[in-house]
Design a protein that fits this description.
The chain is mainly beta. The chain is built from two helices and twelve strands; from the N terminus they run ββββββαββββββα.
């Protein structure tokens, strides 16, 4: 495929270890990578700037919303580490071929339960129950290629094949 134009997610499923989660709402909120910083100022610096610490990020959350209150929310809320896998089919427009083609996306998370919002009860309405997990590990793969792997507890941060923390890991 030459010059593919990324389009959208066609559809996806979420798995708790090996069980497919049923009743997941239209979207899952993925974690944000906000670098940990320190404000730098002093002699010879015209002001201040935020110095980013390589491979260090603030707390990260995965938010899974369910249409209704069900047992899967409580299973996810049990206080133990767990893996969540999101598998999606994305489409890209193949400019040369003139057609949209699917691409596989897989995101693997490991973490621990952080929050359970039971939602609301209304006649004819969804409860919009939400589980939130604190993420300690994430791996993003597209078409089998690893785009990102971040493991907070094992000091691993790989982006597009580059081991950002490798040299630092060897120093310490």
């Amino acid at each position: 495929m030459s010059n593919p134009i990324p389009e959208k997610v066609i559809n996806y499923n979420v798995y708790d270890e090996t069980d497919k989660l049923m009743g997941v709402n239209a979207s899952v909120t993925l974690p944000n990578f906000e670098g940990m910083t320190e404000t730098i100022s002093g002699a010879g610096i015209a002001g201040e700037f935020e110095s980013v610490t390589p491979g260090h990020f603030g707390a990260q959350e995965l938010e899974i919303q369910f249409r209704t209150l069900n047992d899967q929310s409580f299973k996810l809320f049990r206080q133990r580490g767990r893996s969540i896998v999101l598998r999606a089919a994305q489409s890209s427009y193949d400019v040369a071929g003139g057609v949209s083609r699917p691409r596989a996306l897989k995101i693997t998370f490991r973490g621990q339960p952080k929050n359970l919002n039971l939602g609301t009860v209304a006649v004819g309405g969804m409860t919009e129950t939400t589980n939130v997990m604190e993420i300690l590990y994430i791996k993003v793969e597209e078409e089998g290629k690893t785009l990102l792997e971040f493991d907070k507890l094992n000091f691993v941060y790989i982006v597009d094949g580059e081991d950002i923390l490798g040299e630092i890991r060897n120093m310490i």
